[in-house]
Amino acid sequence: MGNSPLISSGSDINSAYQKTRRYFRRLFKFEQMDFQFALWQMFYLLAAPQKLTKVFRARKNFKSQYARDDPAFLILFAGALCLTSIGFAVALGYSFTQFLKFLVVEIFIDCIGIGVVIATTLWYVTNKFLKPKNIPQDVEWGFAFDIHLNAFFPPLILLHFLLLIFYNLFLNPGNGHIGFAALIFGNLFWLAASIYYIYITFLGYNSMQILKNTNLFLVPIPWLIFIYLVTVYQGFNISTAVFAMYKRRVV
């Protein structure tokens, strides 16, 4: 009886390993991927992310895991990241070499690197502080990273696609009423992207019925609104600052 926790832990590790191995083995088997369902998820991440809560719970009920076992979403996500990065590079006037450097940094640092840090931190916090002690089931790390990818997608579309349409307006806001309007509207994109990320993160963890107090994930939203108002009051154009940082990255 005293060894049962260790046996359970080893079993969980083996199970996670098998799931991960099975996931990556399917990565190049396109005929086994459900791209239509992945596109449906992407659409609802933008239009009505709360509807995906039922998807998370259904996956747990039918496949005994919250994390995706189909790489189709990851493939489409990587494609969207590459396409939006091409548009961003064109708008910023990158050379081909600079574009490749920008793409590598965007994928391996901004998306995967920061995502691993966020997913690992929230995986630890949720298991340590938000999960009742008497529940043996843990939050899967794979699901924590899935939540990050879900939450990252709408900001990607907002900031690397829609924002490009108004690129010149935000980078050179000019003077007077037009410049101030560009400042308000431009910074609003970053506020919306931040709130999207937090809200979808909240929905992901809230879908796990084993967790409590998941509304704590929404606490940063009022602070983000406050920061937005401060940037507008101070005349700080977030787009200008971020675009300048992106240019320095590839020089």
From TrEMBL:
Signal peptide: none
InterPro entries in UniProt: UNC-50 (IPR007881)
Keywords: Membrane, Transmembrane, Transmembrane helix
Protein origin, superkingdom: Eukaryota
Pfam families: UNC-50 (PF05216)
Keyword Transmembrane applies: yes
Family that this chain belongs to: Belongs to the unc-50 family.
Localization in the cell: Membrane
Protein name in UniProt: Uncharacterized protein
Recorded topology in the membrane: Multi-pass membrane protein
GO cellular component, one term: membrane
Transmembrane domains' residue ranges: 72-96, 103-125, 151-171, 178-200, 220-246
